[in-house]
Amino acid sequence: MNETHFCVRDLSLAYGKKRIIETLNIDIPIGHITALIGRNGSGKSTLLKAMARLIQPQGGAVYLDGKAIHEMPTREVSRRLAILPQHTQSPEGMTVEELVWHGRFPHQSVWGGRRKEDRQIVQWAMEMTGVAEWADRPLSSLSGGQRQRAWIAMALAQKTPLLLLDEPTTYLDLAYQIDLLDLLKRLNETEGITVVMVLHDINQAARYAHRLIALQDGKVVAQGTPSSVITPQTIESVFGIQAKVIADPVTGHPMCIPLTTATREDTQQPMALGQ
């Protein structure tokens, strides 16, 4: 396998006796944003956890630069890959800066203190995510969107080329969702960070990701550019709904418009002359 390559080969995952993923094969393009989409229970979050070495595969492997990630030392993985899980917890009273410092742990020796380089990276991570002004504030005093930025700052402080996020916009209002996705896009464009994230909003995935992977029952139904994946046929196959797909009037990316029972009936009615 080529250097700086991230891929899944014949991967099978299960919780107990329940098989979630079956012999899955995907490639993650380096330097791009990839979004995993699909219904609840389709295996998106399970796959992401396996890619971050949080779940042991029953078969196959996740490969990072030609090495099976589950056979790599923890510290080495932490220097190459950072993950922001769906549910985050921090000790009571922890400040934003203290949280961000946790991102430097994989790079510090057992006996080493806080080096000048570490301080510079922590400051850079806070400035990139816009949380520097809240450095001394407890995380508990921040809004949901602000806390999410702080956690991303911690992941950035790891200085990894790969960033994995599990439903990063969940529980955020629309303004914070766009704010966060704009931040991830900027990090990808300016820092070259490869982003893999689970998203529920199909239109946000189509707008922000270079590549989409649609999952159903632990299998890949479609993968490729947003235009090739977001089609009426794929939407019906993956989500079990009928939809119209039009061009986003702002970006030109595909936009999915689900059809309700009423709208389906309306679209099937012949239009009278003059209408």
Automatic annotation (TrEMBL):
Q: Any idea what this protein is called? A: ABC transporter ATP-binding protein
Main location (coarse class): membrane
User: What membrane topology was assigned to this protein in its record?
Assistant: Peripheral membrane protein
Indicate where this protein resides in the cell: Cell membrane
Keyword Membrane among UniProt keywords = yes
Boundaries of each ABC transporter domain copy? 6-242
List the Gene Ontology MF annotations in alphabetical order: ATP binding
The species this protein belongs to is Polycladomyces zharkentensis
Name of a matching Pfam family: ABC_tran
Ordered alphabetically, the record's keywords are: ATP-binding, Cell membrane, Ion transport, Iron, Iron transport, Membrane, Nucleotide-binding, Transport
Asked whether the UniProt record includes Nucleotide-binding among its keywords, one would answer: yes
